[in-house]
Amino acid sequence: MTSESLVENDLYVNLVERYSDMVTRICYVRFNCLADAEDCWQNVFVKLYASKEMWQKSEDYLRRWLITVTLNECRDMHRKLFRRNHYDIDKLVIAHIEDFDRSLLHAVKALPYKYSEVIYLYHFEGYNVSEISGILGRNENTIKSQLKRGREMLKDVIENE
C-alpha cells in the first residue's frame, strides 16, 4: 500500500467514525428492522467511499450531503422492502447509540415517516426550517406544518406510552 492510499484510508475511516452515529440514527428512524437499517447504512458509506471528492468538502457540506444520501437511500430501500414480508421488531438493541434516548427515538419512529424525518432533522440534528427545506426539497411552509403536526402527534404518542 502506498502512503497516499494509507492517508486516504485513514481519512475515510475518520469520516465513517465521525458520521456513523448520525447515519445510523436516520436509518433506524426509517426502518423497523435492524438488518435493513444496517444495509442502508452500509450503502450510504459505500457511496461516500465512491465519492472521494466529497471527502475534501467542508464539514457542513459533507454532513448535509450524507443526510441527503441517507434519506434517499432509505426511500429507495423502503420501496424495495415494501414488496417483501418482514416483521416489526419493537425492541431493538443498537450498540453504537448507547447514549441516545431510545424511548424518545421509539416515539419518533412511531410517527408517519414524513413527520419523523422532519422532527429528527430539526430536533436531533439541529437543522433549522430553511436548511431542512433545502435538504428535503420541500417548501419551508410545508416543513413548518409538518413540524407542528409531527410535534402534536409525538405528544400523543408519548402520552399514550
From TrEMBL:
This protein's record includes keyword Transcription regulation: yes
RNA polymerase sigma factor 70 region 4 type domain: residues covered: 102-154
One Pfam family hit: Sigma70_r4_2
Domain RNA polymerase sigma-70 region: 15-81
Protein name in the entry: Sigma-70 family RNA polymerase sigma factor
Family: Belongs to the sigma-70 factor family. ECF subfamily.
UniProt KW keywords: Sigma factor, Transcription, Transcription regulation
Origin superkingdom: Bacteria
Alphabetized CDD domains for the sequence: Sigma70_r4 (cd06171)
